[in-house]
Amino acid sequence: MHNDWIGRRDYRDFLVALATPADSPVVLFALKVDGVPIAAKLATVDPVRLESHIDVYDPQWSFCAPGKLVNEHCVAWAFERGLDFDLRVGDEPYKREWAPLTCQTTTWYIATGWRGLPVVARRRAVLWSWQLKALLRRLLRRGRGT
Fold first, then answer.
1. Is 32 helix (H, G, I), strand (E, B) or coil?
2. Are residues 68 and 81 in the same domain?
3. Rounded distance, CA 118 to CA 50, Å?
4. For the domain that residue 83 is a member of, what is the CATH number?
5. Are 88 and 49 contacting, i.e. CB atoms less than 8 angstroms apart?
6. Total domain count for the chain?
7. CB-CB contact of 39 with 58 (8 Å)
8. Do 35 and 7 share a structural domain?
9. Full-prediction pTM beyond 0.85?
10. pLDDT in tens, 41-61
């Protein structure tokens, strides 16, 4: 995922502040090699579930599937505490290994004021560009006969 806010110091500080209180519902799981994180998951915990929000891994370690290892640990951690493990919405391929059932979802972006209009317009433009890229890929594959 690429966004201008990912990697910004103020976003990092926000996440650290969110997870700092001892009673915070936010948890961070990390897989480290020699003290260096190679994969992590930011999740929230409530009385019935562990909900996965952000997953990251170092691409240099992709050959050993560090994201999958963190996920397996989180599933075990949740089940040990009698919690459901919620992968949240989205049809990312890795989720198919864990969830036998799927459902269609719809996301609506609605501006509730003047300041929200540019945000919604930008988001719509990003989504439209993704849809256009997907359409072009399908057309190119069809043209190649694959």
1. strand
2. yes
3. 33
4. 3.40.630.30
5. no
6. 2
7. yes
8. yes
9. no
10. 989 999 999 999 888 899 999
